[in-house]
Amino acid sequence: MSAPNFCFAHAAGASDQEREQERGYQPNQWPCHPDDEQRIAALHDFHLLDTDFEEPFDRLATLAARHFDVPIALVSLVDTDRQWFKAAEGLPVRQTCRDAAFCTHAIMPGAPTIFEINDAAEDKRFCDNPLVTGDPWIRYYAGRALVCDGQPIGTLCLIDRKPRPPLDDSQRKELIMFADMVVDLVYRRQLAKQYEIVQSQLYKKTDELQAKNRELSDLVDTANAPIFAVDRHLVVTAWNQKVSQLTSIPADFIKGASIRCLASGAPSEHVDTLEVSFRALQRAVNGERVECFEMMIQSKVHGRQVLLQVSAEPQLNEDGRPIGAVCIGEDVIARRRIEEKQREMRELQRSNEQKDHFLACMSHEMRTPLNGLLGMLQLALLSEECANTTELKRQLQQARNSGTLLLNLINDLLDTARLRSGQLSLEPCHFELLPTVRESVDVLRHRASEKGLRFICEMDPALEGVRVHSDPTRLSQVLLNLLWNAIKFTAAGEVRLTASQVSRSDEACGVRIEVSDTGIGIAGDMQEAVFECGRSIGRKSLTSRLSSLDISGRSSMSERAPSSPRTPTGSSPGIPGAGLGLYISRQLVVLLGGTLALSSELAVGTSVSLELTLPIATSGEEEPARPPSARSPQSPLPRFSVLLVEDNDFNVEVCKQLLEHMGQRVSVAMDGRDAVGAVVSSLADGAHEFDVILMDCDMPVMNGFEATAQIRRIEREQNVAKPVTIWALTAHAMNSVKAQCLECGMDAFLTKPLMLPVLRERLESLA
């Protein structure tokens, strides 16, 4: 329970009043210190107000009361509107009102050294004070101002309930001494508090510094570079983990020992090298920065030799004097190994680039004669003589299938090169899933029928109408590979494709497509190997493989018959493979964001499952135009005016006859400059003669890229409302060439050999 508050004041004797009046002090008024704001601010700076009793102050108050034989002694602090007691002997209160306080008079600038009231009841200034006329019945007051930091913050005062004679000189000096002791306590208390604050800050800073030192030490110790330090006498003071790992010399073994101990027991040929290193270290500890000197260290434990390239930085004290050196090294042998690895990688990269360039060149060189070969075979198969001669038709089909197989092998080799170099990229678009799956089935259904196999296709109704965002061409390529393998390695029974929905959300659709067969199966230890590039068994001869193929050529998908092999444990005559199909399929599935798994049992069959999570196509966006089904009837094409730009006479003859067979009107330009001239003449006549241009890329005089760019520039300059359609027709099949074609202004990219279904689909897109 808090002590009660009193409002009381103190009086002075007549002689004191006269002395006060002589100094300009006016009685019967409650004075306010002229610098009261600064005085109160100084008081608050000492943080004394509203604190607990403290024994040093209490002892002084008690000692003062006993020494002067008074019932009450106070350490009084004068605040804004109160006086608060830091120590109170004989008075059970902590504060009183300032307007009735005698201490207010004692702290005035003009107050006497000791403000003394001998009988307050007889003093007109204080006789009516309620603390004089009532409890605690104050009659005598003597107060000495407590001056701290130049401001009187309060008093040490003596109070009695009866009048007392004035203090003699000895007593006045003693009261002043008591007051000075209170001031000393105030300063000591402030210093103690400041010391606590500083000490707390010091502890905090010390903890932070220690944490930083530990962090720095851990950083140095765990650094991936060998770091060690020595003092002025070359005694090791630090030795990080990396040095220990490289040299097999633990830190606790060498720290505190001279670095020269490394020379002990070292081979004679290394001692001289070490002495050179030690001299370099000595220069560093003498204050010189030393860079890139070699240091051979040999472990006494394992005899391991490590060659370090070291840079030494002088370590200075606060006066800037060198006291040691910090050394950072590099494992020269490891660096040389890395450089050798990098050189090998560059060589490998250069070799791969040369290989890719070779494949691209070979692809181009092989596609050019294949274009003529397959083109002529297609024309021959369409002739009346072939239609009337069964044996001739069979022979021509076999020849065409052989050429198709060779084309597929070229395509697979290019895909493999692209996959290994990371250059094979997807071309995603919006499409409906099930029609794409059905087209892959339709392409090979006739082949299963020819072998007498049941071809079963089961589609989950939940997938009907589902439109997704992915690459339909690559998805079809994977499905064709899987179906082709299943048909090829199944002599009797069935091939089954099952497409089902395994998950569905607003953003994606989880799809599982499984292709299973009742074929020869694959041994367990070979099932993972079939996904490796080039793993194939039964590669008897190309002729044997050619005899097993029959591609109808009625759809764009069929122009690229799959070549993925089944790999049984034993020899399987007549079932060869290049060992690329399943490798390519798995890599494509990874690019599509899915997985490809295989399970098989010898003489029972094989099941390959494809799982994909495909993004749902955004509503409102149109689906790309789909090519016609392989089974759909082919209506007559509109008659278009085609400009064929080709420098090879044989290719000109083949392409011209294929186009004319489909009822097209064909003009020929032998190089890019002639093509530009033909277009300019057409625009000058206002006839806009050409509907489409088939543009070769590699030609003399002016290539296809330059010709296309010039045609597009001329069209812009003449504000042609409908620019002519330009299709690249090239033996180059690399993505970089395709990108270059589209960049210069071509509308589509066709590769040689030119197949009738592909050409027909393109022409239908113009209708």
What report would you give on this structure?
The protein has 767 residues and is of the alpha+beta class. It has 4 domains: 35-194, Beta-Lactamase, CATH 3.30.450; 221-336, Beta-Lactamase; 425-535 and 578-615, Heat Shock Protein 90; 641-766, Rossmann fold (3-Layer(aba) Sandwich). The strands form 5 sheets. A 6-stranded antiparallel β-sheet has the order 3-2-1-6-5-4. It is elongated and about 155 Å long. The chain has 21 helices and 23 strands. Helix 10 packs antiparallel against helix 12, helix 10 packs across helix 17 and helix 14 (472-488) packs antiparallel against helix 16 (581-591). The model is unreliable at 6-28, 537-578 and 621-633 (pLDDT under 50). This is histidine kinase.
Q: Summarize the biggest pleated sheet.
A: 6 strands, antiparallel
CATH class of the largest domain: Alpha Beta
Give the CATH architecture of the largest domain. 2-Layer Sandwich
Summarize model confidence as the mean pLDDT. 81
CATH superfamily of the largest domain: GAF domain
Globally, the shape reads elongated
Order of strands, widest sheet: 3-2-1-6-5-4
Number of strands: 23
What's the end-to-end separation, in Å? 104 Å
Count up the domains: 4
Modified residues (4-aspartylphosphate): 696
InterPro entries: CheY-like_superfamily, GAF, GAF-like_dom_sf, HATPase_C_sf, HATPase_dom, His_kinase_dom, HisK_dim/P_dom, HisK_dim/P_sf
Region (Disordered): 551-574
Domain PAS: 212-288
